[in-house]
């Protein structure tokens, strides 16, 4: 599903489906934002419905060391939202080792904060991919 396929009321639809969540990531992350190495967080309620607006952090250093990455994610996880969708974006595909490191730290930070992780995605030019191992909807 791409953002063109989203229903008109997509802002009221739970992001518990990887297809819907991926389409919303595609909708929110413009090509310009992807080129700016933007970290996207879509805060959601208990049902997985997004709270507007999304959190966009551009110029993210995807090569940041583990300590710096974990500190930033712990601050973001302290927002205390019930559930969240996270996406890592760049103008080209991020190396799998980078994605894996960020994904592991996202999992740890939000789990420690009691936030249900609905999905983790990576986005680059005209592409959005789920990298979640999370059973969505649980």
The number of distinct structural domains comes to 1
CATH class: Alpha Beta
What's the overall geometry?
globular
Radius of gyration from the CA trace? 14 Å
Cα end-to-end separation: 22 Å
Beta-strand content = 15-25%
Profile the largest sheet: 5 strands, mixed
The neighbouring-strand order within the major sheet is 2-1-3-4-5
CATH superfamily: Cytidine Deaminase, domain 2
Name the average pLDDT. 92
The share of residues in helices is 25-40%
List the secondary-structure elements in sequence, H or E.
HHEEHEHEE
- CATH topology, which one? Cytidine Deaminase, domain 2
SS summary, helix count? 4
Instruction: Outline the low-pLDDT stretches.
Output: 134-138
The count of strands amounts to 5
Helix vs. strand class = alpha+beta
Corresponding CATH architecture: 3-Layer(aba) Sandwich
What does this structure look like?
Helix content is about 35%, strand content about 20%. It is an alpha+beta fold and about 140 residues long. The chain has one domain: Cytidine Deaminase, domain 2, CATH 3.40.140. The protein has a five-stranded mixed sheet, with helices on both faces. A hairpin with a 2-residue loop joins strand 4 (about 115-125) and strand 5 (about 125-130). It is globular and about 40 Å long.
């Amino acid at each position: 599903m791409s953002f063109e396929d989203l229903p008109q009321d997509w802002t009221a639809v739970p992001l518990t489906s990887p297809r819907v969540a991926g389409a919303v990531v595609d909708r929110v992350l413009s090509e310009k934002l992807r080129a700016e190495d933007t970290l996207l967080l879509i805060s959601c309620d208990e049902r997985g419905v997004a709270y507007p607006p999304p959190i966009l952090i551009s110029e993210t250093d995807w090569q940041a060391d583990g300590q710096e990455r974990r500190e930033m994610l712990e601050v973001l996880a302290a927002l205390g939202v019930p559930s969240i969708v996270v996406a890592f974006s760049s103008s080209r595909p991020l190396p799998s080792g980078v994605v894996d490191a960020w994904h592991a730290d996202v999992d740890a930070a939000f789990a420690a904060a009691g936030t249900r992780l609905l999905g983790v995605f990576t986005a680059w030019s005209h592409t959005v991919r789920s990298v979640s191992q999370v059973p969505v909807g649980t």
